[in-house]
């Protein structure tokens, strides 16, 4: 669930969450809780008056949760802050949804609420008041600064500052080729994950469409269910946006050792239904067919910007364009997380990053800038990671991290067992590093190398006898 874009819908059915609001009916929760609780928002159909909030966050994912936590840390929660989200839950950590959350019961899965994946906040932001509406929409062009329209009853939620943290929506296969058949799954939130788990409990043959983060993580989880699993994607190898062909081959071999089959360079013609209307097979454009009683689509995501295009925000750069303090072109309106196209200072370009690390950091930076005199611009170092096969009984648990920019030539060191590293070098500078199965100390070292971009001797690096030796060579280059 991670990507960098250098180049865009908020769905109906949003809920209105206003912590400690005095004017709405209250749903009390234990005062001892120290995190946003996991509970379905109560439907409040009683009329409520127009609301005024100093700060409004639109979105319910990691960026929204960390923005809320930052407000609390600055003493700006009680009565002055609310979150507008389409989900029935308070913000939670989403990365687990395609990792531990999907493991079968006997593998001790990371399920809500026990897995502790909520965005931890101070007690002031425990959900006390839960308002639910069927349709929320933004006020038309020129009026956004005055509030958010609750269209079905004509009420307004007025605010002083608005933070857009709407994230992304999953890219879907067209309905005409079976993209909405029962048994076809997309994963962006906990409801999606719960639906997929229900299918995995009954499935025998699973097809995963897409060879990126979603595809790799879901396929690894399906192995834990002991299911016949096939990954289908049009590229030449797994995670083509980041992995080199050589590195991808190592991972593909590991998946194949776990029984996963690959159909590379393959394109979907349609998803076919059985006599009961449930998905039964995936038909490829070469005429072949793969049987499936569960299909998971992981073909990318699109930033949820459509509600904001008509109110003067710039979305021509692949997201909502912001500056180094996450300010949009409209005063009082900010954008953070996956949806924001921001200046990637270290590489001097505009980028949009789909990753939890950026969601957290951008939200924190934005709120700090909003509430203080901070003028320091966001200086982000791209960071991606994945964890697979981490369930009990797995012969090998996999965790890799990448920092920097995958630009230039590559040097690969190690044999994958026990570890492997890939170094990207451009104009003699070390630009990026991917490390698999590293130690804590090594994982702490690689961001320092990627940020400082030392000049390295490529030949010397190529002759390194081990990953440890290669990292020592890079570290020594940094000291020169």
TrEMBL record:
Its cofactor is FAD. Its EC number is 1.6.5.4. Residues 55-362 form the FAD/NAD(P)-binding domain. Residues 381-461 form the Monodehydroascorbate reductase 3-like C-terminal domain. One of its GO terms (cellular component) is cytoplasm. It is an enzyme of class 1 (oxidoreductase). This is monodehydroascorbate reductase (NADH). The keyword Oxidoreductase applies. The keyword Glycoprotein does not apply. Belongs to the FAD-dependent oxidoreductase family. GO terms for molecular function: monodehydroascorbate reductase (NADH) activity. Keywords: FAD, Flavoprotein, NAD, Oxidoreductase, Redox-active center.
